[in-house]
Specification:
heterodimer, A: 347 residues, alpha+beta, Immunoglobulin-like, 2 domains, five-stranded mixed β-sheet, B: Cytochrome C Oxidase, Chain A, 17 helices, 4 strands
Chain lengths: 347, 604
């Protein structure tokens, strides 16, 4: 009902605006087009300068409102993230100066050089010095930005340290599955044709490969603070993306093409609770690549903890191979109870 | 009709011929069908593109209002939606499938059907022959086909909105495997085939149009109209057409391969897939291949959208500042630089796909290089205003608004083009803010500027000024209110294409902002309807144009009669003696291009 009411009000507003617009056209004809033009010109010139002032004030106010809700207000939770934040600040400052300069000039010129009968325009078709100036200066600034950017880019995308922890993360509609290499620190071979969630092999691990026998599967990612970790990223059905906002990182999960990313978490989950003053804080994995109707709900959780906590957690987990074998011996019942919740389809 | 076209074209190249008899004075009577429907007159074809574009813009804009309802008021229900859309909005709430279909169609419609066909289709057609001094396009028939292929593409895309499984819903970038597998998404069933077929037809239209624009500009310029005497609109449209001709075929190949993967069992994009428990036989394809093919068009595409707007804005800023455009050759050079670089930066959309970081480095460098010609353009526009005598016609207002938006949206491109920052900001609302401002709204402003400026030429009448002022101010303020705050949610890492953030610890702090944005979006949409009303009302009832040259402009289109017939000039095509930007020279307000250089005239 309220929908129709709003529509009625809207159409009424339309009619009013239209009548005013039509009337003002007649008025301007009566008044003389020249005079009406001058009045309108002054009003619009004034509105431009007003827009500039209110716009800048509005931008400041917007910053007051929302700054504290962005990640800029809290430290990056990984070493790579710190580099990215630093780079971000350099870029904000450089572009911010250019933004202010050009917007102020634009609206100020619009106001200052509004039509006046007395003014004769300055015939100024080109000036090589000026043009050279604003080719070279932006080029220098951009060189600096590219230099910084690539320096960090190669650091971030470079090889992971040898002692990195390895965790495999696999995306499917619409959840994440983790696999840990176990004691041998080697992930067992996979073959997608062996995938069979109902028999406890949701990831398609090839049990023929001995390296797979101590692999541990989980629905949560556990990481050790201050220890580099390399993620091996897979997707089963469509492209997903491992989005790690607090670590400032992101990497696509592509079916058939494993990708990797590495970083060093700097704060445990409980430390981050204090830093962000949010007792419900969790590291979240968001899917950042459109993957279907449940895309928005494809959430994963990372727990960053101390080495002892991590060891205790790992010890509580049973390798998936053993779970499958145990369940295979008696009649196949509901397996994978300890492993994950991936079967729950979010619809 | 084709012989007539040929003879027109022939006339235009050889001005020595007498072509009185081909002028519109002696034209045979045209039927409704040949004048308004299957016309070969470039002006009418331009209007067909414009009006079709307007209809699509209303649909695409309405879709954004619908999905903003979900984002802005996730806890409310709107029973009216269930009345209108049935199962797609059961209980008055937009379903997830419907949300993604709306988002996908909003992007597809606005990028391709409005800002490509509606923008360059309209102004390339209307302006090229008028501004270079030709009676019509090189081939009026191909030009007509170009519109009708666009119309066919429109029909197919529109039909896809009504099929049972809904239209394509994998995002306007339609990345496979999501778009290749019907099992993965409702929208990847029949709707996706419609999308691909529609896009194939669209590409045919775009190529026919583009080849025509290029050959017309190269071959049919009137006597004295050297390339460097062309208005910047012509240069911009020329580069746009070149971009389209070179990049659209690549999208066509990408789309055809996707159709094969979908329907013929090939594995171009598919490898090792388990979807909903079903193990697919496809091996050896690469999902990333599609992204390369898509963005090889997709990135030039954003310049296909932006360049015509830049060209029109340059022209309109100069005319209404009563001052030459500053640095004409630098403007042409920067358009050229942007056109070249447009082909060399596509992989900056793919920094986080697992692309080789070494390769990525080159794309960072080339992407940020685009900022140099862009900076040249901005500073040249500013200098054009400096010490001018500015008339705020509605076209001029939108041109100034364009510059402001181009700055705002262009600067955030420097963030995203830098791969280091892209790792953080990729696919967040920061991207949404960036491309909507710089490519969406800015190009719309260029288009509005063009419509307000050339409406008198199209219909011999003016648009209503008061409605135009309301339209401009509400749209400019609204655009900033909608997209400026999105930078903040982007800097919080909030991902795009989420229907609901309430289950997320990291992203649920922006509900108030989202409601605000949705409310403003609805107001801005309503004001666009006001513009549409103004447009159609003024075609029939607008104030009549009294003089041939209402803006006091130099370019050739203002030397034609107020309502030019097919053939544009009743007599000979005028000869051109100077560049188009002699405003305020030697104490004269303006000197049309047709006026010979005087003996004592100063040089520019």
């Amino acid at each position: 009902m309220s929908g129709y009411f709003i529509l009625a009000i809207l159409s009424l507003a339309f009619i009013v605006i239209f009548q005013i617009a039509k009337a003002s056209e007649y008025v301007s004809v009566l008044k003389g087009e020249e005079k009406a033009f001058k009045q309108n010109n002054q009003i619009n010139a004034f509105l431009f300068i007003l827009f500039l002032v209110l716009g800048l004030a509005g931008a400041w106010w917007c910053n007051e409102l929302f700054y504290s809700r962005t990640l800029l207000a809290q430290p990056a939770a990984s070493d790579h993230g710190e580099k990215i934040d630093f780079m971000l600040w350099i870029t904000i400052i450089v572009t911010g100066v250019v933004f202010l300069l050009t917007q102020i000039l634009l609206f100020w010129f619009a106001y200052k050089y509004q039509y006046s009968e007395k003014r004769t325009v300055f015939y100024f078709p080109h000036n090589n010095k000026l043009e050279l100036l604003w080719t070279v200066v932006p080029a220098i600034f951009l060189t600096v930005l590219v230099g910084f950017g690539l320096f960090y880019w190669f650091k971030i995308t470079g090889d992971a340290p040898k002692d990195s922890q390895v965790v495999e993360i696999t995306g499917k509609q619409f959840n994440w599955m983790m696999r840990y290499p176990g004691k041998d620190n080697v992930l067992g071979r996979k073959n997608y044709r062996l995938t069979d969630a109902s028999s406890g092999n949701a990831l398609g691990v090839d049990w023929e490969d001995g390296a797979s026998h101590d692999d541990i599967e989980a629905s949560e990612m556990h990481l050790v603070v201050n220890r580099p970790v390399q993620l091996v990223i897979n997707a089963q059905d469509v492209i997903h993306d491992v989005g790690l906002v607090h670590f400032r990182l992101k990497m696509d999960a592509v079916p058939g093409i494993p990708t990797t990313i590495w970083f060093t978490p700097k704060y445990t989950t409980s430390e981050m609770k204090q830093i962000t003053k949010n007792k419900d804080f969790v590291y979240e994995i968001s899917c950042d690549q459109m993957c279907g109707s449940g895309h928005y709900s494809m959430r994963g959780v990372i727990v960053v903890e101390t080495q002892e906590e991590y060891d205790a957690w790992l010890a509580s987990k049973k390798p998936q191979y053993l779970t499958v074998k145990e369940n295979a011996a008696p009649a196949v019942t509901d397996t994978a109870a300890t492993t994950s919740k991936p079967l729950a389809q979010l619809q | 009709m084709s012989t007539e076209t040929v003879s027109h074209a022939h006339d235009a190249t050889s001005t020595s011929h007498s072509h009185e008899e081909h002028g519109h004075d002696h034209h045979h009577e045209e039927s409704f069908l040949t004048k308004y429907v299957f016309t070969t007159d470039h002006k009418m074809i331009g209007k067909q593109f414009l009006i079709t574009g307007i209809i699509w813009a209303i649909i695409g804009g309405l879709f954004s209002v619908l999905f903003r309802l979900q984002l802005g008021y996730p806890d409310s229900t709107f029973p009216i939606l269930e009345d209108l859309f049935g199962k797609w909005a059961a209980g008055g709430r937009i379903s997830n499938e419907f949300y993604y279909a709306l988002v996908t169609m909003h992007g597809t419609i606005l990028v391709f059907f409005v800002l490509t066909a509606g923008l360059s289709g309209t102004f390339a057609n209307i302006l090229i022959p008028l501004q270079i001094g030709a009676r019509d396009m090189a081939s009026g028939f191909l030009n007509m086909l170009s519109y009708w292929f666009f119309f066919l593409a429109s029909v197919v895309m529109f039909a896809s909105l009504f099929i049972q499984t809904g239209p394509a819903s994998g995002g306007w970038t339609i990345y496979p495997p999501l778009s290749a597998l019907g099992q993965a998404s409702e929208g990847s069933k029949l709707g996706m085939d419609f999308w691909l077929i529609s896009m194939a037809l669209f590409i045919v239209s775009s190529l026919l149009g583009g080849l025509n624009y290029i050959s017309t500009i190269l071959n049919l310029r009137t006597k004295g109209m050297s390339m460097t005497r062309m208005p910047l609109t012509m240069w911009a449209i020329f580069f746009t057409a070149v971009l389209g001709v070179l990049s659209f075929p690549v999208l066509l190949s990408g789309a055809v391969l996707l159709l094969f993967d979908r329907n013929l069992g090939t594995s171009f994009y598919l490898s090792e897939i388990v979807v909903k428990g079903e193990i697919l036989p496809n091996e050896g394809g690469s999902a990333i291949l599609f992204q390369h093919l898509f963005w090889f068009l997709g990135h030039p595409e954003v310049y296909i959208i932006l360049l015509p707007a830049m060209g029109m804005v340059s022209e309109i800023l100069s005319v209404n500042s009563r001052k030459p455009i500053f640095g004409y050759l630098a403007m042409v050079g920067s358009l050229f630089a942007i056109a070249i670089l447009a082909f060399l930066v596509w992989a900056h959309h793919m920094f986080v796909t697992g692309l080789n970081p070494f390769l990525g480095a080159f794309f960072v460098l080339l992407t940020l290089l685009i900022a140099v010609p862009s900076a040249i353009k901005v500073f040249n526009w500013l200098t054009t205003l400096w010490k001018g005598n500015i008339r705020f016609t509605p076209g001029m207002l939108f041109a100034i608004g364009f510059v402001s938006l181009f700055i705002s949206g262009g600067l955030t491109g420097i963030f995203l083009g830098n791969s280091t920052l892209d790792i953080h900001l990729h696919d967040t609302y920061f991207v949404v803010a960036h491309f909507h401002i710089v490519m969406g709204v800015a190009s719309f402003f260029g288009m509005f500027a063009g419509v307000y400026h050339w409406f008198p030429k199209m219909y011999g009448r003016y648009l209503n000024n008061t409605m135009a002022y309301i339209h401009f101010w509400v749209t400019l303020i609204g655009a900033y209110l909608i997209f400026w705050p999105m930078h903040y949610s982007g800097l919080a890492g909030m991902p795009r294409r989420y229907t609901d953030w309430s289950n997320w610890q990291s992203f649920n702090q922006f509900q108030g902002m989202n409601s605000f944005i949705s409310t403003v979006a609805m107001i801005v949409f309503a004001v666009q309807l006001l513009f549409v009303f103004n447009f159609f009302y003024s075609i029939f009832k607008g104030r009549k144009v009294q003089s041939e040259n209402p803006w006091g402009a130099n370019t050739l289109e203002w030397t034609t009669p107020i309502n030019p017939g097919h053939g544009n000039w009743p007599g000979d095509i005028p000869e051109v003696h100077r560049w188009p930007y002699d405003y305020g020279k030697d104490g004269r307000d303006f000197i049309p291009q047709t006026e010979p250089i005087g003996a004592n005239e100063s040089k520019h």
